Amino acid sequence: MANRLSQIATRTGDDGTTGLGDGSRVPKNHLRVQAMGDVDELNSQLGVLLAEPLPEDVRELLITIQHELFNLGGELCMPGYALLKMDAVLRLDQALADHNANLPRLKEFILPAGTRSAAIAHVCRTVARRAERAVVTLAGAEPINEAPRQYLNRLSDLLFVLARVLNRANLDGLGGDDVYWHSERLKQQGD
Fold first, then answer.
1. Do 155 and 92 form a contact (C-beta atoms < 8 A)?
2. PANTHER family, per this entry (predicted)?
3. Which of 31, 96, 148, 167 could form an SS bridge with 114, CB 3.0 to 4.6 Å?
């Protein structure tokens, strides 16, 4: 593995390139760098979610996910290297099944709303989808392991389910249930 950062302002990126973990340099708008940036943004958004009141099991799950996302970012940073293992994808599958089992069936589409923590989970979900698209785009141009794409796909699904869980946890007293989309409301406004 490459050396850890010993200084932050290296000035080596002033020419519009950035270094990868294997020592190579690529333009800062390279598909690989874009995917790494989206994964980093997702991890940062999870950090915002972790600053909220959360059920302890959700908090522990999100902390594990942050570490796994760091592995995913590291894998993207080092072409040809595998850091994220398929057991991480299986852990997300299990968490998805466990948390979804206690939720009522959806009656309609839901809005990304409710409690603050649920709304932040929805933001994380959308960033996870963007990161997944970036990894899929990169995989169209360069070889990429399957685990990163699958992980991001499962994670976005899990974040949707966790938003529903967080609305029901109602730790800020402002939620309690899903916020359903009302297509009838749109019809009334069109009249």
1. yes
2. CORRINOID ADENOSYLTRANSFERASE, CORRINOID ADENOSYLTRANSFERASE MMAB
3. 167
